[in-house]
Design a protein that fits this description.
CATH class: Alpha Beta
Protein name: NAD-dependent epimerase/dehydratase family protein
Radius of gyration: 19 Å
Distance between the termini: 43 Å
CATH architecture: 3-Layer(aba) Sandwich
CATH superfamily: NAD(P)-binding Rossmann-like Domain
Largest sheet: 7 strands, parallel
Family: Belongs to the NAD(P)-dependent epimerase/dehydratase family. Dihydroflavonol-4-reductase subfamily.
Keywords: Oxidoreductase
Strand order of the largest sheet: 3-2-1-4-5-7-11
Order of helices and strands: EHEHEHEHEEHEEHEEHEEHEHHEHH
Shape: globular
InterPro entries: Epimerase_deHydtase, NAD(P)-bd_dom_sf, NAD(P)_dehydrat-like
Organism: Kribbella speibonae
Length: 334
């Protein structure tokens, strides 16, 4: 049997990656920082006997060689926890970069066939999000201290692994996947992940919608892209954008209102002027990373993934509505 290692089994994307790989008939090993979460992960993904656990932390070397033993493929979807609003950007950048290299080095020592690493579309974006046009995987984000630490961390972590592979001479291959805004259903109330933006809209904690455009990709489609990139011979040594349909926040709000009726009564419909968001960000750290995206018009193309891997993302409205329905059904919508 083929064994796939999924890093970060307690995470939002990690949980769906486990479920998706098991569904396709492969054995899965997943890394957790503590075995205390193993039962919760099993319950969330509906695992049978083909799921096992390895204790490993992206911040430490211990455990990674054991985690890679007997593994054929690695889906490195985990990312170290960090404060996106920290004044010291290295608090986010260094763990992301070093964690990615830690996984890749262990995989090459074990002779794993291929590592598929999750990066981000903002690692392939122009200096200004306000620029018109469509960009592809050939573009690399230029590192700039003025950029949000999260965006810098994703860019620098991906660059670090490609630099490592440029000096590596062995059988292990590398592929990176660059998703947009990952939404969709949740597997458990304990793992809300990046769906918090929909959660906040349902709860009415946002006074209005900022003028921000998201390239919404369903978490299930993202996992499908990872698996395709894992198996396709032509995916070796390639970057693949995994963004979805570009929608403004106000369009997400409208989709929720239309589909959910009274359950979306608190969803804001008013679009906030940019200056209001910028003023609010002076006192609300959670808004600071958003200001660079106000009025964003740049988009990414997934033509490469569609052409080489046969991948296609579902409509954004379907994803956000099913995300909201899942949050409601799990009792964590507000």
């Amino acid at each position: 049997m083929v064994t796939v290692l999924v890093t970060g089994g307690t995470g939002y994307v990690g949980g769906w990656a486990i479920a998706g790989v098991l569904e396709r008939g492969y054995d899965v090993r997943t890394t957790v920082r503590s075995l205390g979460r193993a039962d919760a992960v099993r319950a969330a993904v509906g695992a049978d006997g083909r799921l096992e656990f390895a204790v490993a932390d992206l911040l430490r070397d211990d455990g990674w060689d054991a985690a890679m033993e007997g593994v054929d493929y690695v889906l490195h979807v985990a990312s170290p926890l960090g404060d996106e609003n920290a004044k010291d950007a290295d608090a986010l950048i260094v763990p992301a970069r070093d964690g990615a290299l830690r996984v890749l080095r262990a995989a090459t020592r074990a002779g794993v066939k291929r590592v598929v690493m999750t990066s981000a579309a903002n690692a392939a974006s122009p200096a200004s999000y306000a620029e018109d046009g469509v960009t592809d995987e050939t573009l690399w984000t230029v590192d700039d201290p003025k950029l949000p630490a999260y965006r810098r961390s994703k860019t620098l972590a991906e660059k670090a692994v490609w630099d490592f592979m440029a000096t590596y001479d062995g059988p292990t291959e590398l592929t990176t996947v660059l998703p947009g805004a990952v939404l969709g259903p949740i597997l458990s109330a304990d793992t809300v992940g990046t769906t918090r933006i929909v959660q906040r809209m349902l709860a009415g904690t946002m006074p209005g919608t900022p003028r921000i455009g998201l390239e919404v990709v369903d978490v299930r489609d993202l996992v499908d892209l990872h698996v395709r990139a894992m198996l396709a011979p032509e995916a070796a040594g390639e970057r693949f954008l995994g963004t979805g349909e570009f929608v403004w926040m106000r369009e997400i709000a409208a989709a929720l209102k239309d589909a959910l009726g009274a359950q979306a009564a608190k969803v804001p419909t008013r679009e906030l002027p940019n200056f209001v968001v910028r003023l609010a960000s002076l006192t609300d750290p959670s808004l600071r990373a958003l200001t660079i995206s106000l009025g964003r018009r740049n988009r990414h193309t997934t033509a490469k993934a569609e052409r080489l891997l046969g991948w296609k993302a579902r409509p954004a409205a379907q994803t956000v509505v099913e995300c909201a329905e899942s949050l409601l059904s799990h009792g964590v919508a507000g």
